[in-house]
Write a structure and sequence with these properties.
By secondary structure, the protein is an alpha/beta fold. It is built from eight helices and nine strands. The protein has helices at about 5-15, 15-20, 55-65, 70-80, 105-130, 150-160, 180-195, 235-240; strands at about 25-30, 35-40, 45-50, 90-95, 100-105, 140, 165, 210-215, 220. The strands form three sheets. Strands 3-2-1-6-7 form a five-stranded mixed beta sheet, sandwiched between helices. Strands 4-5 form a two-stranded antiparallel sheet. α5 crosses α6 (about 150-160). The longest helix is centred in the middle third of the chain and has 23 residues, at about 105-130. It starts with 5 loop residues before the first helix and ends in a 5-residue tail after the last helix.
């Protein structure tokens, strides 16, 4: 259908047009790596990749607390935050060594994650310094690796610039990891209005409402949707426009 890059798709969803004109920085934090992109005058002018991400935060927890990676990931997802103002009374993990118990609280976890985010942002800062001309740009964090409360506050301190996170408000796609997917769909929908219906380069088999689709061990069941009785949202209309069989 079309080819674009992930950073452009994210910007399509996360930024208003005015920011793309005046200058904006997008930080897409993934699991193994992060992408730093700079937009100005409506164009993507700079893009770089940093080999740090959510995996490094999980590894920092596992190393600091001497626990397996899977348990560290569980704690990060369930209790993770960079807000050091939380209470110190919630014990989430206990270790025992030589008959001595050591308790770790959510505040302890917040300190580990805050230190980890600072390390990640220091590396990202070196990528941003390439375009640094003394100006302050709109800076936004997206991506699944940025799913930590108060991560924008830590990033603001390290980057010496106001940073915010962006979370989609589309029903069913409110995770930060979905930003690029939504941006790509809206981009293709806009393209469709300009160039019209494109010939399909890939035809998928018809799938009934009762069939289950399996991807790498995960099962997703397609449920019936009555368009006559339910209100169509923005995302539904975009999907219908993209995959309509009408000329």
């Amino acid at each position: 259908m079309d080819i674009t890059i992930n950073a452009y798709a994210c910007a399509k969803e996360a930024f208003d047009a005015v920011y793309l004109q005046e200058g904006a920085i997008l930080i897409d934090i993934g699991y193994r790596s992060s992408t730093v992109a700079f937009f100005e005058d409506g164009y993507l002018k700079y893009i770089a990749q940093a080999h740090v991400g959510g995996y490094d935060l999980t590894r920092k927890i596992a190393t600091s607390w001497q626990i397996p990676m899977d348990k560290a990931e569980l704690y990060k997802v369930k209790y993770g935050t960079c807000d050091l103002r939380i209470g110190d009374e919630d014990v989430i993990h206990t270790t025992s060594q030589n008959d001595v118990e050591k308790h770790f609280t959510q505040k302890d976890l917040a300190q580990v994650l805050t230190d980890g985010v600072k390390e990640i942002m220091e590396i990202i800062k070196t990528k941003i310094e390439v375009i640094n001309d003394g100006r302050s740009y709109e800076t936004v964090i997206v991506g699944g690796g940025g799913e930590l409360p108060a991560i924008d506050e830590v990033a603001t301190q390290v980057l010496n610039s106001a940073v915010r996170t962006y979370r989609p408000d589309t029903i069913g796609a409110r995770d930060m990891s979905f930003v690029s997917c939504l941006g790509m769909m809206y981009y293709l929908n806009d393209r469709l209005k300009i160039f019209g219906q494109m010939d399909s380069s890939l035809v998928l088999p018809d799938i009934s409402n009762t069939m289950s689709i399996r991807f790498k061990g995960l099962t997703k069941t397609k449920t019936a949707y009555n368009s006559d009785t339910k209100k169509k949202g923005k995302l539904t209309k975009v999907i219908e426009n993209l995959f309509s069989e009408e000329d």
